[in-house]
Amino acid sequence: MRKMALVGDRQWVPLVTGGEVRRLDLDYAATAPCALQVRDAVDEILPWYGSVHRGDGFPSAVCTELQEACRESVRAFTGARPDDTVIFTRNTTDSLNLLAHALPEDCEVFGFATEHHANLLPWDRRTVHRLPVPDSPAHALELLDAALASAARAAGRGGGARLVTLAGASNVTGEVWPVAELAGVARRFGARTAVDAAQLAPHRPLDMAGWDVDYVAFSGHKLYAPYGAGALVGRPDWLDAAPPYLAGGGATRQVDLPAVDWAPSPQRHEAGSPNFLGNYALATACELLHAPLRSGLVVQEQRLAALLERELARIPGLTVHRMWDARHPKVGTVTFSVRGVASGLLSAALSAEHGIAVRTGRFCAHPLVKHLLGEGHADGAALRASIGAGITEQDISDFAWALARLVERGPAWSYRRDGARFVPDPDPRPMPALSHGARVQLRAAERRAEAPLAPVGAACGG
Ligand SMILES: Cc1ncc(COP(=O)(O)O)c(C=O)c1O
Questions:
Q1: Hey, what's the torsion of the CAs at 28, 73, 215, 232, to 10 degrees?
Q2: Residue boundaries of the structural domains of the chain
Q3: Is the CB of 116 inside a 6 Å radius of any atom of ligand 1?
Q4: With 60 as the cut, is the pLDDT of residue 405 above it?
Q5: What is the pLDDT of residue 1?
Q6: Of 31, 225, 231, 426, which shows the fewest CB atoms inside 10 Å?
Q7: How far apart are the first and last CA of the chain?
Q8: Which ligand 1 atom minimizes the distance to the CA of 94?
Q9: Rounded to the nearest whole angstrom, what is the distance from the C-alpha of residue 235 to the centroid of ligand 1?
Q10: How far is the CA of 76 from the centre of ligand 1 (A)?
Q11: Which H or E run includes 192?
Q12: Residues with Cβ < 8 Å from 185, sequence gap 6 or more?
């Protein structure tokens, strides 16, 4: 792939031990840096910013036109069918909650226990068939086949709607799920398939029509477009029959109380003024990544991911966690733990002493991480390094060197436990000097002065 320029790439960050280093971001799976072209596109459109579907000014006409064109960029990126609807949301979580809200009343849901909480929790008011962690992709197919067959038997002839919902790639192990094969099993039993593509979309081409998948959900901020937009793409019939996800302006054709004539999707579920800049950023990222994902990017990333695993394997006591055989295809995400060393401490020290960002905890996928670490694991937390555009071989070597040094010698600073996390104690790193956010920063400094080691908070409980 041509090198993708990133905002803040190689920015200097302060260390607790003094001085600064160029930051190394290995936490793409949580959120990716903004692509320069995405930021430039947003800056370029800002002077033309106006209300969408709500005004007669020229900027409104421009933004309304572009907003609808953005749907076409998303459609092309996902490989959707011409009649699939493209609904703009806030992120993958929002998209999957919207889909859960729109399922037919009697719909049964089938999913593996390996999912991110965003694809685990929204379905719970339905009949959910939760399948265990499969030993292999073939086992996943068997488990799904057996669960659908058993549900079909139980329902007799009059079975209702069924949805199989699965991740395209695991946010914990990076392993790529056999999406097309699982969708094929689902189809044999008349079930639809939804793919949580939050982790797959930045790394692999999506092909809804080719895979025969009914819905896809993904987030802009993991796709180098952190402007608060995501998308749900898929078959319009259930979405058009469901009550609006949000009720309000823009979602109706006519209101003559008490009668309300709701618009079909996508407007039906997009009430309120849209996040036009977010949608525009998302569509720009889709256009930017569409061709490279289908050509060079995957190969380059595979090479770096393999190097990362090789480097990690050389660190004594380190285990890379995976569900399946090591040869199974993965995106550039690796979860690991080091015997006898708290994962949170390593993560905090990598950041505070080396300027390297990774993630620690259970990655909002508690059941899978528990399964991978086993019951007896000391702190129940692992470390995750994830790569994407802009990462080089040198970065991987620098990371492996810093990690090996921490494992061998321990941290050079003191850290305090804050729940499952560790924080430098003290933390002398100054906040960056911002001009436009200066007042906000002042408030943050006041907060810090009042409670110097205030809990940072742990998303997903770790
Ligand atoms: C596989 C997967 N699904 C869903 C989500 C939720 O994404 P978001 O926080 O953008 O809603 C994530 C986030 O990490 C994820 O990795």
A1: 70
A2: 12-33+296-461, 84-271
A3: yes
A4: yes
A5: 45
A6: 426
A7: 34
A8: 11
A9: 22
A10: 21
A11: strand 192-196
A12: 141, 144, 145, 148, 164
Task: Give Dmax (Cα) for the chain.
Answer: 72
Catalytic (active-site) positions: 364
- Ramachandran bin of 363, using left for φ above 0, alpha for ψ from -120 to 50, beta for the remaining angles: left
12-33+296-461 to CATH, choices 3.30.390.50, 3.90.1150.10, 3.40.50.980, 2.170.150.70: 3.90.1150.10
* pLDDT reported for residue 456: 46
Report the relative pairing of strands 24-25 and 215-219 from DSSP bridges.
unpaired
- How many A from CA of 116 to the centre of ligand 1? 7
The type of residue at 335 is: T
Buried b (16+ CB within 10 A) or exposed e, 420-450: bbbbbeebebeeeeeeeeeeeeeeeeeeeee
pLDDT one-digit tens code per residue, 237-276: 999 999 999 999 999 999 999 999 999 999 999 999 999 9
- Contact (CB, 8 A) for 221 and 91: yes
User: Which three-class secondary structure string do you get for 353-379?
Assistant: HHCEECEEECCCCHHHHHHHHCCCCCC
Q: To which residue do tokens 């470390």 refer?
A: 383
The CA-based dihedral angle spanning residues 83, 85, 288, 295, taken in that order and rounded to the nearest 10 degrees = -50
pLDDT at 459: 54
Class at the top of the CATH hierarchy for domain 84-271: alpha beta
Distance CA 215, CA 239 (A): 11
pLDDT at 418: 86
> From residue 156, how far is each of 148, 150, 161, 316 by CA, in Å?
12, 10, 13, 55
CB of 91 closer than 6 A to ligand 1? yes
- The Cα 277–Cα 231 span in angstroms is 14
CA of 93 to the centre of ligand 1 (A): 6
118 lines ligand 1 (CB under 6 A): yes
Lowest mean pLDDT among 57-66, 307-316, 416-425: 416-425
Residue whose Cα lies nearest atom 7 of ligand 1: it is: 92
Facing residues of 330 across strands? 175
